[in-house]
Amino acid sequence: MPKVTVVIPAYNAMAFLPETLDSVLQQTCTDFEVSIVNDGSTDEIAAWFTTVNDDRVRLISQANQGLSGARNTGIAEARGEYIAFLDADDLWAATKLEQQVRCLDRYPEVGLVYTWTRLVDETGKPTGVKYDSQVEGNVWQQIIVGDIVCSGSSAMVRRDCFDRVGGFDPNLSPAADFDMWTRIAAEYPFAVVKEFLLDYRQHSSSMSRNHRKMMQDLRITFEKRFQSVPLEMLYLRNVAYAGMYRGLAWKCMYEGNDREASDYSQQAILHDPAMRHTKIFRQLQLEILLSRWLEPATYLKLKNTIRSWRSPQQAASKHPLSSV
Predict the structure, then answer these.
(1) CA distances from 221 to 151, 171, 301 (A)
(2) Longest C-alpha distance within the chain, in Å?
(3) Rounded to 5 degrees, what are φ and ψ at 59?
(4) Same structural domain for residues 40 and 95?
(5) Is the residue at 321 inside a domain?
(6) Is residue 210 classed exposed, middle or buried when 0-12, 13-18 and 19+ CB atoms within 10 A define those classes?
(7) What parts of the sequence cross the membrane (predicted)?
């Protein structure tokens, strides 16, 4: 049996899938299988797969079930002791699997190990935005108010974890990753490989750009998680919502929508008034004001200066719950 099963959900992903698969086949850890789950694609994925000359890779085709459904199929078919997820447009550094396997082998109590992430554009060029969370161990309290894993393509999980916590929720789309990580964190410690081993690709069709759906999914996740917490931890509920709105505000600023960013930032401080006194929130407010007052070229120059004040982990914008 392979040590690792790599699950790649694919829906009309041929623009990036060959490069993504190549980043897996170049891994220094070679004891793996790859399950590409063709989730009802209408592109040429089946014809392309006939050109893949590696017997560790298989194509599983099914009617469209969405991202969670495709991942759940990959989990059900997995033979590996560990499962690593990879979106069909993301890229791994060559040592990612090796370092994560070493971590899980060394620490049998750990359920999930993630890596640091950097964001790249459609061509694979780094955007300068990075996510380098230091949080590990018993992380539930930290993860419920800030998505430390950041990307579904970052995590490697013990196969046994899914027997205990169940599969990805098919009713969630953008926040399905976050929902799963909070469920695992309630049962197992986390670990982190402190290297940038994942390139997360940003493009116009990225699921995380659907802000309204993201908020709906996160609300469902929050309410599920806080139904069973001790009374003394319920204060984190408002903190979690504030973090969601703050993250969405930063996403809107990266997308050039200062009006929506302002609305989200106001919601953030309504949920957690103490947030207005944090450095990162003051920087957000400053960017919103500058974007309205200045000419675009002048604003761009000042914006880059402001963002240079922020640490890499503060500059992350992939997820509305990232530490921005």
Answers:
(1) 16, 11, 38
(2) 61
(3) -110, 125
(4) yes
(5) no
(6) middle
(7) none
Which are the contacts of 182, defined by CB distance < 8 A and separation ≥ 6? 140, 143, 144, 221, 225
The pLDDT tens digits of the residues spanning 65-88 come to 999 999 999 999 999 999 999 999
Separation between Cα atoms, residue 316 and residue 130, nearest integer Å: 5
The answer as to whether 209 is a domain residue is no
- Sign for the pseudo-dihedral over CA of 244, 252, 134, 24: positive
| Domain of residue 149, residue span | 4-201
Do 9 and 74 meet the contact criterion of CB atoms below 8 Å apart?
yes
If you search the block for the tokens 């469920």, which residue do you land on?
183
Cβ-based neighbours of 168, under 8 Å, separated by 6 or more: 67, 68, 69, 71, 72, 176, 179, 180
Helices (H) and strands (E) in the chain, counts: 12, 9
Residue 34 in tokens = 């790859």
Please indicate, yes or no, whether residues 137 and 240 belong to a single structural domain of this protein.
no
Q: Please name the residues in contact with 99: beta carbons below 8 A apart, sequence gap of 6 or more.
A: 115, 193, 195, 197
Structure tokens at 222: 């929050």
Same domain for 141 and 254, yes or no, is no
Residues 35/75, Cβ–Cβ less than 8 Å: no
Query: Which pTM does this prediction carry?
Result: 0.82
pLDDT value at 96 more than 50: yes
Of 130, 27, 9, the closest CA to residue 70 belongs to 9
The confidence band for 23, taking pLDDT boundaries of 50, 70 and 90, is: very high
Give the number of other Cβ atoms within 10 Å of residue 216's Cβ. 15
What is the token pair recorded at 196?
Answer: 């940038």
Task: Identify whether residues 195 and 270 lie together within a single domain.
Answer: no
CATH number for the domain harbouring residue 48: 3.90.550.10
- Interval 191-219 mean pLDDT: 82
Residue with tokens 């950041």: 150
Task: Please state, as a whole number, how many other Cβ atoms lie within 10 Å of the Cβ of residue 51.
Answer: 7
